[in-house]
Write a structure and sequence with these properties.
Length: about 350
């Protein structure tokens, strides 16, 4: 177990909430990012999902530009770009552009999954060449070659320049919910982010595999392990538990294949839960951090120490946006972040 106090960052999925249009979730993300910039969080990452009524943003690179433009200090990045959906050259160009516009403030997190269902994945990729094998690994290797200029002599891509040519890619992270990405991140010497908020793989195994196998590289000299967790904070344990009932109901619905907007506390309180439902809620709650800021802080610090996480990425499924902002503020103050809110 490591004795450490982790850095705090944000993972935002731009959740659609019941009673509001999906476009409102995008504006909520921008406002929350501005707030977290002032609260002292290290970075703000945006996810990529497609054909999900519960998630408003399919294009994190667009949101990154919008958020970086209205913040001043916080790093902004992708959590992540689902690489099999994209041509590596397009990823290289877009993130070089972002780095040029916001130097030193951009992160590029890359994921293996499509971020959607099978049919939508086909629609996203239908005009791309599929050469079989490990599509993610092939595209990752190509992205690296666009950055390093390492295409073999005579390769046709050797004549193509990723613009702007005077910029480099921002820091690279691989995202994962199993041991594969942990080991690959370590072998390539990149940062690693583990999705504990939905993963079934043992977090300690993944984080240990990353740290023990890390090889210094042109990307990083030392390992940087991020851990994404689901957190809901409030002034009291009772209020946090009340707010968490929205996510409880949302989780049950997702297990049944129902991916609708995040329900309100009032909607959740009107549902009659079976014994099986309550057991599923208890099972999911085991991976969540719900309660007052001090209690959550102590649990997160212990969790980071036991897993070896350098940084915690906080994602919060809270229907009420004021309560969501307050959850992040309480955490920032509990962890003594350099909060710069107006009095």
């Amino acid at each position: 177990m490591r004795d450490m106090n982790p850095s705090l960052s944000v993972l935002d999925l731009s959740f659609v909430t019941s009673g509001r249009p999906p476009s409102a979730a995008l504006r909520d993300s921008i406002e929350l990012a501005r707030y977290c910039d002032r609260l002292g969080f290290v970075r703000y990452w945006l996810a990529e999902h497609h054909n999900l009524p519960s998630v408003a943003s399919p294009a994190p690179e667009i949101m990154i530009g919008q958020i970086a433009a209205v913040t001043s200090r916080i790093r902004v990045g992708s959590g992540g770009i689902m690489l099999p959906n994209h041509a590596p050259l397009m990823v290289a160009e877009r993130f070089r552009m972002l780095e040029a516009l916001f130097p030193g403030r951009i992160d590029l997190g890359l994921g293996r999954a499509p971020g959607t269902d099978g049919i939508t994945a086909v629609a996203l990729r239908r005009h791309q060449e599929n050469r079989g094998g490990d599509e993610f690994l092939e595209r990752l290797q190509e992205l690296i070659l666009w950055e390093t200029g390492g295409f073999p002599a005579g390769h046709p891509f050797g004549r193509v320049v990723a613009m702007p040519s005077d910029m480099s890619l921002p820091p690279l992270f691989l995202l994962g919910s199993s041991g594969y990405s942990a080991r690959l991140s370590a072998q390539l010497g990149m940062g690693f982010a583990f999705a504990h908020h939905f993963a079934t793989h043992d977090v300690h195994d993944a984080m240990q595999a990353y740290r023990s196998g890390f090889t210094p590289s042109v990307w990083r000299e030392t390992p940087l392990a991020l851990l994404a967790v689901s957190v809901i904070c409030a002034e009291t344990n009772e209020e946090a538990e009340r707010l968490a009932t929205s996510q409880d109901l949302s989780w049950l619905r997702r297990e049944r294949g129902e991916f609708g907007p995040l329900p309100s506390v009032e909607e959740a309180s009107a549902v009659t839960y079976s014994d099986h439902d309550r057991e599923r809620i208890r099972h999911n709650r085991a991976r969540m951090f719900v309660g007052s800021a001090e209690g959550v802080r102590d649990r997160l610090q212990a969790f980071a120490a036991s897993t070896g996480a350098d940084e915690i990425l906080i994602t919060s499924s809270i229907h009420d946006q004021a309560a969501r902002r307050r959850s992040y503020e309480l955490l920032a103050r509990a962890f003594s972040l350099p909060v710069a809110l107006a009095a």
